Amino acid sequence: MIIPRPAQLTELPGRFTIGPVLHLAPGPGAEPAAELLAGYLGTGRARGTIGPAITLRLVPYPDLDPEGYHLEVHPGGVQLAAPTLDGLRNGVQTLRQLLPAAALDPKTAPADAWWWPSVSIRDRPRLRWRGLLLDTSRHFMPLPYLRQTLDRMALHKLNVLHLHLTDDQGWRIEVAGWPLLTEIGAWRTTATGALHGGYYTARELRELVGYAAERGITIIPEFDTPGHARAALAAYPQLGNRPLQRLPVWNEWGISDDIFAVSDLALDFCRQVLDAVMDVFPSRRIHIGGDECPTVAWEHSPTARRRAADLGLSSVSGLHHWFLAQLHDHLAANGRRTMSWDETGHSPGHLPIDVALTAWRDAAHGAAAVARGHQVVMTPHTATYFDYPQRDTPDEPPGQPDGTVTLEQVHAFDALGGGLHPTDPAGDEPGVLGVQGGLWTEYVPTLAHADYLLYPRLCALADRAWATGPVPYDDFLVRLRVHRDRLRALGADAGGPRLVC
């Protein structure tokens, strides 16, 4: 009854009882995974070397995926082996799910009666990129909730958190030398007159990166440019196309016409922001947005028209890809890889081929990007966006209009549909990096509402991202009935209650 479903699982007779003294025996290099497991089993347990051991070892299995693992649980001991630390961490999450559901409740004291059933598991993922986007700009999410979400992601063997940090409605990361970004850009007055906002310090984000890394999760930061810039322009109007006009942080949804100017000042600002982002986030990839960028402000800007003419562009709309290419070059010069939303790469030759694209419009756009030579993360809004309502019923909380995304739709989505092939995120070959769910927060005013939208749909996405071979929806539902007890123990009440927002 594990989610995501293991590749191979054999039930065996007996059980391994976890006594009051924890006998952990990590091999060289396996210590971080052992400490992660010890934390899940309760920091109050005594540690010792008496009794049956829980052994964790790094073993160079030539026939096992780097994130795969081999787990043997018997009454006389537990052996977890994997070729990499990430593989061991995935095995730890399986051990976590094999515990009684109550053991997942962080408020539950360690019990001597906890046990694991005897099993033999040989497991590996289908896709290397198994992610979730969280939009912290439209509604700020405090750090304890982000840590809680990372821990829940790890339980489901998800390994990428795409953190959307800037947008029209809020700026969430401090940048040295630009204090008004957080003094002004991080706050907005809502339609009811209330003040909403917040931001993360560099120290807080570094600690979050470390917390994620301990669980095998990479955080991909997103600084959205050149559109979705209203919060930054509210702080520093000189970065925009109306430098003398003071704008408030936007308190509407949709797409603002206020975008960054194509001036040297604006470009230098964006490079400084990327420097600050790279200083905090060690991820190989940095997301620069690039989506939903109306160019009407450039059409009325003498600076933009002059820049387009100097570059030999037929219209200012061509400045969009030029702007993104400048930031791509800056990231490349610093040894990082650029990510952007898929709409920026519809026409061949506009974006460098090594820009990885997040395909949000539909899977066909993602397939077209792969055909042009890009690496792609599949995240079509019709199947993986959790801000859409789950049901078309009168008591469903408000969400993105014009559609629903049901649990069955999420589970049915195949990121490799149509004959697409996976590719390794560590390499350069075109193909599908993986799949990602998304929670945009225009219609998510509370953390309880966020949980309602995420679970159990995130479980369905994780099941398809990991599990190899056919995964019938009915089989998933059977496992979900048991898995819901785990979610409730973690504070994520799957499927309800109905929320009034």
UniProtKB/TrEMBL annotation:
This is beta-N-acetylhexosaminidase. It catalyses: Hydrolysis of terminal non-reducing N-acetyl-D-hexosamine residues in N-acetyl-beta-D-hexosaminides. It comes from Streptomyces tateyamensis. GO terms for molecular function: beta-N-acetylhexosaminidase activity. Its EC number is 3.2.1.52. Belongs to the glycosyl hydrolase 20 family. GO terms for cellular component: membrane. It is an enzyme of class 3 (hydrolase). Transmembrane segments: none annotated. It holds the Pfam family Glyco_hydro_20. The active site is at residue 292. GO terms for biological process: carbohydrate metabolic process; glycosaminoglycan metabolic process. Residues 2-123 form the Beta-hexosaminidase bacterial type N-terminal domain. Keywords: Glycosidase, Hydrolase. Residues 128-467 form the Glycoside hydrolase family 20 catalytic domain. It comes from the Bacteria.
